[in-house]
């Protein structure tokens, strides 16, 4: 019998399959001896999947060294029909992420827990922190100048005097009364969007920003292209959010100053996508990526402003769905403009399947992702469930718009809706829409690699956009990653 672990009643155990007769054992030993001289990559291991509650076998799957957890889940789905999004694989009490390789050797059984939940139910307070902070150390900060005004408070440059060092920092002075406004508000964004009469939180939440920055500050491998928090302190009527100071301003100012060379564009996009990839790997959706929120520190990108951030995936790795059109107009992806009703009438897109999630026009020139009913037929009208949008593909779209604006010093459109003439022009021209728009404007194009990269990030359908990791591996950016690895060696 395969190895058995302990978990809850809905759990499955995954372990090496060893229910065999002596004859089978001898055959397997011969096969093992014969395979001993083969490369490790060619060897496969038979894993047994069992329901934890009954110990009944669910399926057997063949796995090999280096196989990812996502691939294991695909095998379980193919054999047992359990959807990938319902599966949670754990080892030693730790959940294994989808892109991670299968541990080898398997010293303990994997546990598979089936977790079925509605991805449209989100928690806007996931990163939100408490309002109790350490008292501001007296005499430690010297005011230099005011940098900017913000929604929740103004931003200043200070000198921070510590015991053995002195540094220049940025301080966002957050009004304490504004921080407390999120208390008792609705946390499910779908409810906030569709039932606005309920007590709704602000789209930008300072406590969420502090919470995300606090989480990032505790990571040993934190990405250098994310603005670093230095501390949070309480003063009479204010909370001081202290971060590194970025002396180079933001990328919006750089774009306004004139055209940016392609090699610099490549450099900035490489760093930005490393920051985004790190956030996404940690299940953080930014939702407000823009040139204004990308600072320069020693000519390196510093992505900031996490007030609209969300936990992008459930504990089982299912992308959560969001409903508010947050962020800045030009940077928003087309799918973020969700109807305020639970269902909407659509024309079923060609090639889509009943029960699937698809991108469709929801009327008035807006697009949205919907879940089709079981009786949906392509090119016919039907009522479909409004399915919200996933945060990570929307972030990639915002990166693409940031790239466009930095390269040509103007936005490609005002809003990504069919009511916008420029977006409609790009959409109607298909894959080459962005390039067609630039030719129409008589603007110079970048290299073919850069144009292809841009077109991929601005794909109309979020399901077709590359992930941040895939973007970094694109032919246009991959050489920078290889060069960085060579420098490390």
From TrEMBL:
Gene3D superfamilies: Phosphatidylinositol 3-kinase Catalytic Subunit, Chain A, domain 1, Transferase(Phosphotransferase) domain 1. It comes from the Eukaryota. GO terms for molecular function: ATP binding; protein serine/threonine kinase activity. PROSITE patterns: PROTEIN_KINASE_DOM, PROTEIN_KINASE_TYR, UBIQUITIN_2. Residues 141-477 form the Protein kinase domain. The keyword ATP-binding applies. Keywords: ATP-binding, Kinase, Nucleotide-binding, Serine/threonine-protein kinase, Transferase. It holds the Pfam family ubiquitin. Residues 20-32 have a biased composition (Basic and acidic residues). This is Protein kinase domain-containing protein. It comes from Alexandrium catenella. The lineage of its organism: Eukaryota, Sar, Alveolata, Dinophyceae, Gonyaulacales.
